[in-house]
Amino acid sequence: MIKIKYKVKNTEGIHARPAGLLAYKFKKLKCNVIIEKNEKAVNAKEIFPLMSLSIKQNDTIFIIFEGEKEAEEAEIANKFLKYFNIIKQ
Predict the structure, then answer these.
(1) Do 64 and 5 meet the contact criterion of CB atoms below 8 Å apart?
(2) Where residue 8 sits, what CATH number does that domain have?
(3) Nearest 5 degrees, angle CA 47-CA 45-CA 27?
(4) Domain that holds residue 83
(5) Count of domains for the chain
(6) What is the SS3 assignment for 32?
(7) pTM beyond cutoff 0.85
(8) Catalytic residue among 3, 5, 15, 17
(9) pLDDT by residue (tens digit) across 21-66?
(10) Which has fewest Cβ within 10 Å: 28, 36, 56, 88?
């Protein structure tokens, strides 16, 4: 299991469009991907649970990668998250 702390710098947070794109990207990964915010954890491969977190600018989130090739897939996801201005702390 790999748990990484991120800070959301995007001024709009993670609204519908980025949530959809993130869920789409995470679905391609073989490992499980969980996003935590304020002790609430959801499956990051599903758009509606991801949107239910109401992630806003300056929120701190944790993304957990668990399973097959978790280290490699965490690195792939990290590069994609930078595109949305979600920065590893």
Answers:
(1) no
(2) 3.30.1340.10
(3) 125
(4) 2-88
(5) 1
(6) strand
(7) yes
(8) 15
(9) 999 999 999 999 999 999 999 999 999 999 999 999 999 999 999 9
(10) 28
